[in-house]
Amino acid sequence: MNELIVNLHMHTTYSDGSGTHAALARAAIKTGVDVLLVTDHNVWVQGVDNYDRDGKKRVLVIACEEIHDQARDPQKNHLLVFGANRELATLADSPQTLISAVRQQGGLCFLAHPDDPALPAFGETDISWVDWNVSGFTGIELWNGFSELKSVARGKLDAIWYAFFPALIPHGPLLKTLARWDDLLSTGRCVVAVGGSDAHAQHMSMGPLHRTIFPYEYHFATINTHTLTPNALTGDLPLDRKMVFDALAAGHCFIGYDLPGPTRGFNFSAQSREINGIMGDEITMQGTVTLRAKFPSRAQIKLIKNGKCIKSLHGDAITYTSDEPGVYRVEAYKQYLGKLRGWIFSNPIYLR
Ligand SMILES: [Zn+2]
Ligand SMILES: [Zn+2]
Questions:
Q1: In sequence order, which residues have a C-beta less than 8 Å from that of residue 170 and are 6 or more positions away?
Q2: Which pLDDT score, from 0 to 100, does residue 158 have?
């Protein structure tokens, strides 16, 4: 299968980001990103879907949306909406109505930054997802590059330190969010995990200090969602858009954090006598199934079954033969800047 590096969840000047779609596209081309899913707050920007080119390199830009109820105080429940092809922000006061409408339109939706703590030093409030009785969503944003700052910085000085050294921020998805994902999976649902950047590239001034905090290029080089698609981008906009959304909807994707080491080339698959499957697939067991994950370089690897680690090792591959149904996924960690940090998080293979 073909691998596309997708950076999703980011803001432009249409909401609270500092860059235009063209500026984001230039940053994406520089960092080797194939697809940008741009999600301005409560506005679906039409007429910007396009391939931006620089010589032989190109990036596919698709306008999507991040929707929340602007009248709600305190603010909660941000929803990433992809491929709905119409403005649905007017439905934001009821998360379930909104989710159902997105699905009815053939779109996908992901609960954004499900656990998002406050950062009082900067007036940032907790904007977690709170309406957990909803159903029908495609998945969750397991790892959010921007909101992780709110979990590692304890005060203003910390936050300024991280603004200058952003590579120190990413440690992995919040443990609370990982546990929540496993809980959702334990109900028998397929819940797709994606990694978002939540890039804003905001300008900050403090006395003589002026800085763009977390430039788009930084975000695009760090946490991405890699989709596995049947083909490379074809240049046909509707076809390529559908191919990317189909891969996300099916969970044919993984989250990769590239600063500790390139994550391109990772795969996780299942083989039995009759059936082959990849991440996101539901496989009805007939006899034993061999699960295999192959990594682009060595890391600390964990194989997780139904939320519990059943095998771990240091290496570049892990294999496990199972005769039991379960939700199987893999996580990998690498040493980087003095700490063991999250590197690759696969979507599950569902053995039923
Ligand atoms: Zn948000
Ligand atoms: Zn956002």
A1: 143, 145, 148, 222, 223, 257, 259, 341, 342
A2: 82
